[in-house]
Q: What sequence folds into this?
């Protein structure tokens, strides 16, 4: 291994040495603690340390790094106190996740590090968002995101590289190519000879380095970063290296040929670098011993401090309160009294436009939303008013874009991500339920993202342009869900969702876009989150519903002579308004829950269970549910009509009333 000294000062070279040595000494200590059963798991990066350490020292301290589970050197390089780092691995309060997430799964804005979620690939989209924010703020900063060679097989890797290429984002997509993904060798993982070849396909620069040579890593990243700060563009950086231990300690290395291990042992990044420094006279035996002693002492002191703490005492209130970022809504009322007739779709557009005026840190992202104005024309004219930086056409890649939304939040920005149809959210599902929803609870990072979901059937659009999928998200702690049924709420709830720093799923029914219209305020205003509205009053029965259900309920009740119903429009599904529902049940004693989504596992199941548990004594009849058939949504109008609940409401209501 050849180290090129170039013009580096002794200080730079010894800083790199201390960085890699510290990382190795911690690794060795962890292996001992693991054998002593004093820690539960360890993902070793022995053999790969030059990359983490070299990269971290090459960057400015406030440039974000998104490391993987093997990149200890990033964390130590950013001077995270060792006691806190160990407390994090140990699951105690001094760590970064209050004992809620393990190992390197945490972020810290103080140190400009965003740790991974276990799914590996999603990191890349988040890196795009951070880089986008830096670029929009003209900070001239770059972002580095780590990948293992195995992780590059995930769609997230592809999506994020493509977005960064199209948007000219200053991101180094770093691949630690160590020849194996867990136990799977490269030839069973991908066919390319080298990752730099993939860069050609994305139209970006690809650079390959010896990842075991810390000076080469450092020099390469430093010069790439200098160039990218001036001329923002992504780079794919392949670092050839080897993992000397198993994926994690329990998995071992039996699958690795001995000869290969021996070859790579000879290329050890620490030993080779140390020899170079000794030969150059930059270090001598005495200084090496002293440095080792000093760093070991630092580790021992940190451990002593960290081991004093035991696992947190569980407090249910704290656990629940931390799911959402603290936010108290101040409902904004319209002041001028001016109103105009607006269709549902215009109300959404109005709310979005006024939110863009109110929050200059709000960015809109979605397919065809810029000059084209979106497939439903909600953002028509936005580009000329707000510019292409803030109204962004995206490539066809929901996952990277939702991830980018989290990245923008990390940099203090807000975003709205438009799904072209709610059905396509499946492509961004992981980012929503595992990244946006959990970020605050895991490490205190709000995900200030609103995902707009053009939803619902009634337009004969078939199984992939008509689904109701709110129940998928209803089950996910950390998300909030709103679902307006009229133009007034559509605007007010959208504005409220954008104000709140928590992640929102905003469902907008396509059938209502042009069929529902009313006079609504011209001013900016918000609607209270978590508050249902009683759209009609009656003593006979309570109908709990939302979206299209509100319209169906009104229509059917009006056709039933003498029937007077409380029709409750939930408006917010998460959190839903239990008080309004309970008050109505006390009055009527009979409840129907109506939704367009399919029956089994739908939102209605949860509401029915809650009413049975909490309002049992007020009920005169079993709680009934009316919903769509438990089938996919058919295309032909006759079949779709049969699928939807509307045709079954009257009979079910009569049954309930005569129970
Ligand atoms: C989406 C997903 N699938 C599977 C896993 C389980 N898993 C964890 S690490 C890993 C291999 C990763 O390989 P690579 O990215 O090459 O990292 P290396 O093991 O080489 O450090 C697998 C399959 C996971 N974490 N996430």
A:
């Amino acid at each position: 291994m050849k180290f090129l000294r170039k013009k580096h000062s002794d200080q730079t070279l010894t800083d790199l040495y201390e960085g890699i040595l510290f990382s190795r000494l911690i690794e060795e200590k962890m292996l001992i603690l693991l054998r002593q059963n004093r820690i539960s798991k360890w993902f070793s990066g022995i053999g790969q340390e030059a990359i983490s350490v070299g990269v971290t020292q090459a960057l400015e301290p406030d440039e974000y790094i998104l490391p993987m589970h093997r990149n200890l050197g990033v964390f130590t390089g950013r001077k995270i106190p060792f006691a806190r780092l160990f407390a994090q691995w140990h699951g105690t309060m001094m760590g970064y996740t209050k004992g809620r997430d393990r190992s390197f799964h945490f972020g810290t804005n103080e140190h400009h590090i965003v740790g991974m979620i276990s799914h590996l690939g999603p990191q890349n989209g988040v890196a795009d968002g951070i880089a986008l924010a830096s670029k929009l703020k003209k900070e001239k900063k770059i972002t580095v995101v780590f990948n293992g060679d195995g992780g590059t097989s995930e769609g997230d890797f592809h999506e994020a590289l493509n977005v960064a290429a199209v948007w000219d984002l200053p991101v180094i997509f770093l691949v630690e190519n160590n020849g194996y993904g867990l136990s799977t060798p490269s030839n069973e993982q991908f066919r390319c000879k080298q990752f730099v070849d993939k860069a050609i396909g994305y139209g970006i620069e690809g650079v390959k380095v010896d990842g075991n040579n810390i000076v080469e890593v450092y020099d390469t990243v430093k010069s790439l970063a200098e160039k990218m700060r001036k001329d923002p563009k992504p780079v794919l950086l392949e670092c050839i290296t080897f993992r000397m231990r198993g994926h994690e300690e329990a998995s071992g290395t039996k699958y690795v040929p001995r000869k290969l291990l021996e070859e790579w042992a000879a290329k050890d990044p620490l030993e080779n670098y140390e020899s170079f420094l000794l030969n150059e006279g930059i270090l001598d035996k005495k200084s090496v011993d002293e440095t080792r002693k000093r760093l070991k002492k630092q580790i021992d002191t940190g451990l002593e401090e960290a081991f004093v703490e035991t696992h947190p005492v569980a407090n249910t209130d704290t656990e629940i309160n931390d799911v959402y970022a603290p936010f108290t809504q101040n409902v904004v009322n319209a002041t001028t009294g001016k109103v105009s007739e607006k269709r549902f779709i215009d109300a959404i557009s109005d709310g979005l436009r006024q939110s863009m005026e109110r929050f200059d840190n709000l960015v809109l992202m979605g397919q065809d939303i810029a000059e084209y104005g979106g497939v439903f024309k909600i953002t028509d004219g936005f580009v000329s008013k707000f510019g292409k930086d803030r109204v962004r056409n995206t490539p066809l890649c929901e996952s990277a874009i939702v991830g980018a939304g989290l990245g923008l939040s990390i940099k203090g920005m807000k975003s709205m991500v438009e799904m072209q149809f709610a059905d396509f959210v499946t492509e961004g599902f992981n980012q929503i339920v595992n990244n946006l929803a959990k970020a605050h609870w895991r490490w205190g990072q709000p995900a200030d993202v609103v995902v707009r979901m053009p939803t619902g059937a009634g337009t004969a659009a078939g199984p992939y342009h008509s689904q109701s999928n709110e129940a998928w998200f209803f089950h996910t702690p950390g998300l909030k869900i709103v679902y307006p049924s009229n133009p007034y709420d559509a605007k007010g709830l959208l504005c409220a969702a954008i104000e709140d720093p928590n992640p929102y799923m905003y469902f907008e029914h396509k059938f209502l876009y042009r069929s529902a219209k009313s006079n609504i305020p011209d001013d900016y205003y918000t609607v209270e989150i978590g508050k249902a509205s009683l759209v009609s009053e009656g003593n006979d029965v309570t109908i709990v519903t939302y979206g299209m259900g509100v319209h169906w309920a009104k229509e059917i009740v009006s056709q039933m002579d003498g029937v007077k119903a409380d029709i409750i429009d939930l408006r917010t599904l998460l959190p839903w308004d239990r008080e309004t529902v309970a008050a109505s049940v006390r009055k009527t004693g009979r409840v129907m829950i109506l939704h367009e989504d399919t029956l089994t596992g739908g939102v209605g199941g949860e509401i029915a269970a809650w009413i049975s548990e909490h309002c049992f004594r007020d009920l005169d009849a079993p709680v009934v549910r009316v919903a769509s058939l438990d089938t996919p949504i058919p295309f032909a109008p006759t079949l779709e009509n049969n699928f939807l609940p509307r045709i079954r409401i009257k009979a079910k209501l009569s049954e309930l009333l005569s129970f």
The chain has a mean pLDDT of 97. The chain has 24 helices and 23 strands. The longest strand covers residues 591-598. Residues 10-35 form the longest helix (26 residues).
